[in-house]
Amino acid sequence: MSTNEAGTLTPGSAFADANGIRICYESFGDPAAPPIMLIMGLAAQMVVWDDDFCTLLAARGFHVVRFDNRDMGESTRFDDRAAPTMAQIFAASFAGKPLTPVYTLRDMAADTVGLMDALGLETANIVGLSMGGMIAQEVALSFPQRVRTLTSIMSSTGDPSLPQATPAAVAVITRDSPPDKEGYVASYVQAWSVINGDLIAFDVDRTAYTAGRSYDRGPNPAGVSRQMLAILDSGNRTERLQKLDVPALVIHGTNDPLVPPDAGRATARAIPGAKLVLIEGMGHTLPRSIWPQIVDAIAAHAR
C-alpha cells in the first residue's frame, strides 16, 4: 500500500493476463463485496478515476476495480501496429474512407470480461466514462450474463446524428502533447479545463497532480490514435441497445462540451427502463464537488 497526497491509503498496481493481453489494475475495498469495474475513457489512464473517488465508492460497500485500457498506461501497448495521426484519422473519416482499426470496442469489452475472469468475478457492476461508457455498453451487449448493472457516464450511443463536440473541445483532445513533463502537465491541465466547462469550479492542482502521475506512468500518443479508430469504427449502437435487458443508469452533465447532453438523453431513451441522471453544470470531467451525487447514484443503482 502507498499513501497519496490526500493522505488516504491506495493499493499498489497489479497485473493480470486477460483476453490475450496484460492488464494493469488496482482495487479498493473488500474483495468479498459486490464488484464494480471502472472503465476509463479515451487517452485516459486508470488514475483519472481519482484514488479518493474510488475510496468513497468502496466505502459504500463495494469492491472497486479500476484498470488501464489496452494501449494506455501500463497495460499492453500495440506499438507494432500503425498509428495514424489524429488529422489523418479525421480526414479519412470525413472523406468517407475510414481507416481500419487495430482493435474494436468489443475487443476492449472482452478485456474487461477477461480481467473479471482473472479476478474470479462471475458478474460485476460495469461503470464506464466517455469512451469507457461505450465499452461498458458493449460489455452489456456482448456479455449480458456477466453484467449485474450498467452505468454509462458522459457517453453516447454512437448515433452520428446527435450533436457533436464544440470546436474548442475537439481541438484540445486531438492536439499533440509536449514530450517533456512540464509541457505535458501544462497541456493536460489546459485541455481538461476546456472540457470541464465554466459552470463548476475547475481544480487546477488536482488535475496537475493526475497529469504528472499519468506522465510518470507513461503517456502513449499512438495508443490514443488507435483507441480513436476503435471509437469511430464502433458505429451506432441504438438499435442493439433497444434490445438490452440489463438494469441501466445514464449519468450526464448539462454543460458537456465534448459529448453534449443530448447524447446522454439518447442513451437513456435507447435502453429499456434506463434511469437518466442529469447533473447541472457538469462538463466532461468529474469535479470533486459532484462526487457525492455520482457515487450515491452508482451505489443506489448497483444495489
Structure report:
Residues 1-10 have low confidence and may be disordered. The protein is 40% helix and 17% strand. It has one domain (7-161, 218-302): Alpha/Beta hydrolase fold, catalytic domain (Rossmann fold). It has helices at 51-58, 86-94, 105-118, 131-142, 167-174, 181-196, 204-217, 221-233, 238-241, 261-270, 291-302; strands at residues 2-3, 9-10, 14-18, 21-28, 35-39, 63-67, 124-129, 147-153, 248-253, 275-279. 46% of the residues are buried. The strands form two sheets. It has an eight-stranded mixed β-sheet, with helices on both faces. The chain is globular. It is α/β, with parallel strands linked by helices and 303 residues long.
Offer a concise description of the structure.
The protein has 11 helices and 10 strands. By secondary structure, the protein is α/β, with parallel strands linked by helices.
